[in-house]
From TrEMBL:
The keyword Nucleus does not apply. Its EC number is 2.7.7.65. Keywords: Cell membrane, Membrane, Transmembrane, Transmembrane helix. Residues 413-545 form the GGDEF domain. It is an enzyme of class 2 (transferase). One of its GO terms (cellular component) is plasma membrane. It comes from the Bacteria. Residues 535-559 are annotated as: Disordered. It is a multi-pass membrane protein. This is diguanylate cyclase. The chain crosses the membrane at residues 335-356. Its main location: membrane. One of its GO terms (molecular function) is diguanylate cyclase activity.
Length: 559
């Protein structure tokens, strides 16, 4: 083959090689470009998804707290305590036939009056049903005695009533055996004036009243057994999470709770294979954060929140809204980059298109960021206070501590911090129920507000542990303040607690030193609290601002 023939043959080969190299290079460049867009879209949508599910969790916790308050309040009423105390001789397993027992209960004037009272209370409370159950598990009065009568029914087998008849607050999801309607059942134990458990107030909140929990697309609520009890897409209701406890329940337990035996699986898991088939350019670390959802081609973000002061958990499966556009952008980008590498004219055109698109994306991202900032500002304002006691939340208290330290150093004034822990709090919960424990926490915070100055602050650090800030106060003066607080708490018991419930507090206090960081002063206050606990409880211990003091006990939960 002569030189001319070689040139003629090498021309098309070179062109093919250049085209191939440009195509490969355009693929690499397009991958990088769309990866950046994917990262920005994920970051923005993840923030929005987290805000949605956090707000959903707060709404659930708030609604349940309000629903719990009604039976808990009714359990304190004389008419309820008296009716239950007078009905202790009635039992479902007695010698009297059930129809006769029901007839006697329905004809009793005092119980009829109680049923009418429950009916009126149901009307303004937003509850579906309210029942009184005596210590023998027998329903003696009902808010719906006229329409759907539960009087005379043995309710001991209801799982939500078990804890209440043992003296603890009970709450569970279930399906009504008579109505077949799902709801949240709340049971509050009732004690008479002598502190004897005489029964329980049981209330039901129908799922239909709580549909606003799942107003956002992709949201659903699961109970403690992993069963989806409510979903924006109602077709998911009755399904179970893959790791749900319902799989371990016996057939009788599932039938008693849900009135059904079969629970289809809801698979929410990383679908690497399908994602790789659609978009091999997605990095492995990002692919592991995306979840596959049945019957949806695009991947999704998954957020869940549990620990809502109940057995419920909030979930959000949020399909990646930008996914179809990202797939289109990748194909388009590759072609545009290929044309750009083929000539300067195409390069100028691609730059113009990319610039316009990036500007549009930047504007959309900025708008979403501003919306997110506004939503976060609103949520942070709502999260400043503990929902039970009204004290400052842990996060806001820690922010306030940093601010007070800076202000104390700037003004040269002293600053004291104390950590208080209610003594034997678990015994109060175990002996008198969690409702009594909640009232004990509220009474302590009320006592602090009555004793402390307006410039002082109290925050709930967790459980029964509280932090107290005393600005412009030296250690000796601070010790006197918290000692008065400790004495007042013991000298003035709460009228909402049983007379036998002895409430006391141990307090550790320290003063800010010149070199203290927030972690250091909290650690020293925690060490002082530990000394008060070790010294017999119901006492105050002060630790001077000595930087050479040993670190706090390793079990401290301040940081």
């Amino acid at each position: 083959m002569n030189r001319k023939s070689l040139r003629q043959a090498s021309g098309p080969l070179s062109l093919v090689l250049v085209v191939l190299l440009c195509w490969l290079a355009s693929g690499i460049i397009a991958d990088r470009m769309v990866q950046q867009e994917l990262d920005a879209a994920l970051r923005t949508q993840r923030q929005m998804s987290a805000s949605i599910v956090d707000n959903m969790a707060e709404v659930i916790a708030s609604d349940l707290s309000m629903s719990r308050a009604i039976p808990a309040t009714m359990a304190e009423m004389d008419v309820v305590q008296r009716a239950l105390a007078q009905s202790q001789n009635y039992a479902a397993n007695g010698a009297m036939p059930p129809p006769m027992l029901r007839a006697i209960l329905l004809k009793a004037p005092q119980l009829t009056a109680v049923s009418n009272f429950l009916h009126d209370a149901q009307g303004f409370s937003g509850l579906d049903s309210i029942w009184l159950v005596n210590a023998n598990g027998l329903c003696i009065a009902s808010s719906n005695a006229q329409s759907r009568n539960f009087v005379g029914i043995d309710m001991r087998s209801r799982n939500y009533l078990t804890n209440a008849l043992l003296g603890a607050f009970g709450e569970a999801y279930g399906v009504g055996r008579a109505s077949g309607e799902p709801g949240i059942f709340i049971a509050a134990p009732v004690y008479d004036e002598g502190g004897v458990l005489v029964g329980a107030v049981v209330a039901k909140v129908g799922i239909g009243r709580l549909r606003h929990w799942v107003a956002h697309a992709g949201t659903f609520v699961a109970d403690e057994n992993g069963v989806i009890i409510m979903a924006h897409n109602s077709a998911l209701e009755g399904h179970a999470l893959a790791d749900g406890h319902v799989r371990k329940m016996s057939a009788d337990e599932r039938r008693n709770t849900y009135r059904r035996l079969d629970f289809p699986n809801v698979q929410i898991e990383a679908d690497m294979q399908r994602l790789r088939e659609q978009a091999p350019w997605v990095p492995t670390d990002i692919a592991a954060q995306l979840f596959g959802v049945a019957e949806r081609p695009e991947p999704a973000l998954y957020e869940s929140r549990d620990g809502l002061n109940s057995g419920l958990s909030a979930h959000l499966v949020d399909p990646l809204a930008a996914w179809p556009e990202l797939l289109r952008n990748h194909k388009r980008d590759r072609l545009l980059v290929f044309l750009t590498l083929a000539g300067t004219a195409a390069l100028a055109w691609v730059i113009t298109v990319s610039y316009v698109r990036e500007r549009r994306h930047h504007r959309a991202t900025r708008d979403l960021a501003e919306q997110l900032q506004s939503a976060n500002t609103l949520l942070s304002a709502e999260a400043r206070h503990d929902s039970l006691t009204g004290a400052l939340s842990r996060r806001y208290f820690l922010d306030l501590l940093r601010h007070e330290i800076e202000r104390a150093r700037a003004s040269g004034e002293p600053l004291c911090m104390a950590i208080a822990d209610l003594d034997h709090f678990k015994q109060i919960n175990d002996c008198f129920g969690h409702a009594a424990g909640d009232r004990a926490l509220e009474h302590f915070v009320d006592t602090c507000r009555a004793e402390l100055r307006g410039s002082d602050s109290i925050g709930r650090l967790g459980g029964e542990e509280f932090g107290i800030l005393l600005p412009a106060t030296a250690l000796e003066g601070g010790r006197e303040v918290v000692e008065r607080l400790r004495t007042r708490l013991k000298a003035r018991p709460s009228t909402k607690l049983p007379a036998s419930a002895s409430l006391s507090v141990s307090i550790g206090i320290t003063e800010l030193s010149a070199e203290d960081l927030p972690e250091r002063i909290m650690s020293r206050a925690d060490l002082a609290l530990y000394a008060a606990k070790s010294g017999g409880r119901d006492r105050t211990e002060a630790l001077p601002p000595d930087d050479t003091a040993p670190p706090a006990r390793t079990v401290a939960t301040t940081w």
